[in-house]
């Protein structure tokens, strides 16, 4: 390409071309003069040769030959001048074309400078976009492939810009294409930003739902821990009741010794004890039925505990399996989102809505299952409480009936037996004063006057007579025991 020049250089170039044209014209004239000088001599020789061949003298025709030679020389000079004029005209045309080309080159240089500035701005924009893409790559690992593709596109655009710097003729077309591609890249980056925002929102929602599920699982774990603690407390209560039964058994041993001493005095009252034995048989039958009911309740409680443990295990396995399946499903969806190129934002929105609806449906199903599990736990808790209350009442009745049976094995009259039953019921109520049912029983069977005993600790007949007058009426709770008032 010719170097670009200013407007001042155009005039100088034209002047130089004109001077060069003049110099060339003079040299051309000199050369043509030499040629003309040479040509007439040759023509003269040819004329002399012709004249010699013909044998006619040519003295009179020499002047004509010289005139012809001069005219011929003038004609040749005219032709040379015309050729020189044509060359000068061509050179002037070349100068004008060069002037136009210089103007065009100046304009092209300005356009190239503007395009270079635009390319620098675009390069700065590309740098900013590249930084934003790196930030998005650090935040969203799923968009690494797309960012690499954008990086490849940017590298291709840089190469194209380098090619454009070398190819000035197709700069406008290529810059237009680069502008279009830049607009497309900006749109793609905006779409990627919106996609990343949507993915962040979805991840936050999923994180919140997962946190709620973890809280529910922790609550369920706390409930199971509470149930285990309650079972341990029930076991501790059972151990405490057994210890109390052993203590009562020891007391009963002492009472039996004391009763044996009293039995030596009360041999004549065996007939009355036989009647009480018949009553005691009915009581033992009822005791056996209560014992059978208690055993069935214990077995049922064990079955419920086993079922509760199996239910806990099944629920844990089901929840773990469902959580694992949800995680796998989310991983598969993330892989699909990372591999699929979304052509339009409508498809992306539709897919996000479908994914969101499926996740919400799954979480709703999990919430329903957790609610059902909590309801079943509450139901089992209530059953355990009812069973514990029934078990406590049954054990109290069994202990009292055992005491009555132990006392009734030794012969007493009705008055002493009734007083002894009242004393035993009073001691049993004192040992279990915290129970409301025992308080009600104690209200029915409390004896207001103290016993009057001798020095050796035996009950006197006067105290027995006083107690026989104050025997309380039977409790309606024990109506099925065939209680017969005196």
Commentary on this structure:
It contains nine helices and no strands. By secondary structure, the protein is mainly alpha-helical. The chain has helices at residues 7-54, 62-139, 144-166, 171-265, 270-339, 345-408, 414-431, 436-445, 461-469. Residues 1-60, 411-415 and 445-486 have low confidence and may be disordered. Helices cover 85% and strands 0% of the residues. It has a domain at 7-139. Helix 1 runs antiparallel to helix 2 and helix 2 runs parallel beside helix 4 (171-265).
Features:
disordered N terminus; mainly alpha; coiled coil; disordered C terminus
The rough form would be described as: rod-shaped
Structural class: mainly alpha
> What ranges have pLDDT less than 50 throughout 5 or more consecutive residues?
1-60, 411-415, 445-486
The percent range for strand residues is under 5%
Region (Disordered): 1-62, 432-486
Keywords: Coiled coil
Biased composition (Gly residues): 1-14
Coiled coil: 119-167, 203-336
Q: What layout of secondary structure does this protein have?
A:
Elements: H1 7-54, H2 62-139, H3 144-166, H4 171-265, H5 270-339, H6 345-408, H7 414-431, H8 436-445, H9 461-469
Helix pairs in contact: 1-2, 2-3, 2-4, 3-4, 4-6, 5-6, 6-7, 7-8, 7-9
Q: What is shown here, in short?
A:
The chain is mainly α. The chain has a domain at 7-139. The protein is 85% helix and 0% strand.
């Amino acid at each position: 390409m010719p170097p670009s020049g200013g407007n001042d250089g155009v005039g100088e170039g034209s002047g130089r071309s004109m001077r060069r044209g003049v110099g060339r014209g003079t040299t051309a004239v000199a050369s043509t003069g030499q040629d003309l000088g040479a040509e007439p001599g040759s023509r003269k020789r040819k004329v002399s040769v012709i004249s010699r061949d013909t044998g006619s003298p040519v003295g009179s025709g020499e002047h004509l030959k010289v005139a012809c030679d001069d005219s011929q020389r003038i004609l040749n000079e005219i032709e040379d001048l015309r050729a020189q004029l044509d060359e000068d005209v061509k050179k002037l045309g070349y100068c004008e074309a060069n002037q136009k080309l210089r103007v065009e080159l100046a304009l092209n240089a300005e356009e190239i400078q503007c395009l270079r500035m635009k390319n620098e701005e675009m390069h700065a924009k590309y740098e900013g976009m590249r930084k934003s893409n790196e930030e998005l790559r650090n935040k969203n690992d799923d968009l690494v492939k797309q960012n690499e593709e954008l990086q490849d596109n940017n590298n291709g655009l840089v190469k194209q810009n380098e090619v454009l710097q070398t190819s000035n003729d197709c700069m406008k077309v290529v810059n237009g294409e680069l502008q279009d591609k830049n607009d497309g890249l900006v749109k793609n980056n905006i779409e990627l930003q919106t996609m990343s925002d949507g993915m962040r929102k979805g991840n936050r929602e999923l994180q919140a739902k997962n946190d709620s599920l973890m809280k529910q699982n922790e609550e369920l774990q706390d409930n199971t821990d509470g149930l285990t603690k309650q079972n341990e407390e029930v076991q501790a209560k059972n151990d405490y009741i057994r210890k109390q039964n052993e203590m009562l058994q020891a007391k009963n041993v002492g009472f039996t010794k004391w009763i044996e001493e009293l039995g030596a005095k009360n041999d004549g009252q065996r007939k009355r004890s036989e009647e009480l034995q018949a009553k005691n048989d009915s009581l033992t039958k009822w005791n056996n039925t209560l014992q059978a009911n208690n055993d069935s309740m214990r077995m049922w409680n064990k079955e419920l505990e086993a079922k509760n443990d199996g239910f806990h295990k099944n629920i844990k396995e089901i929840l773990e399996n469902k959580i694992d399946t949800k995680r796998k499903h989310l991983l598969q969806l993330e892989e699909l989102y990372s591999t699929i190129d979304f052509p339009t934002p409508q498809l992306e929105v539709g897919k996000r809505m479908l994914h969101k609806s499926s996740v919400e449906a799954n979480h709703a199903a999990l919430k329903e299952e957790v609610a059902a599990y909590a309801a079943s736990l509450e139901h089992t808790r209530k059953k355990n409480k009812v069973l514990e209350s029934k078990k406590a009442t049954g054990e109290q009745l069994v202990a009292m009936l055992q005491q009555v049976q132990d006392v009734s094995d030794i012969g007493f009259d009705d008055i002493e037996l009734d007083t002894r039953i009242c004393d035993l019921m009073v001691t049993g109520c004192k040992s279990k004063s915290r129970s409301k049912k025992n308080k009600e029983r104690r209200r029915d069977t409390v004896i207001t006057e103290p016993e009057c005993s001798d020095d050796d600790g035996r009950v006197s007949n006067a105290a027995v007579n006083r107690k026989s007058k104050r025997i309380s009426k039977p409790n309606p709770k024990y109506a099925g025991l065939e209680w017969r008032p005196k």
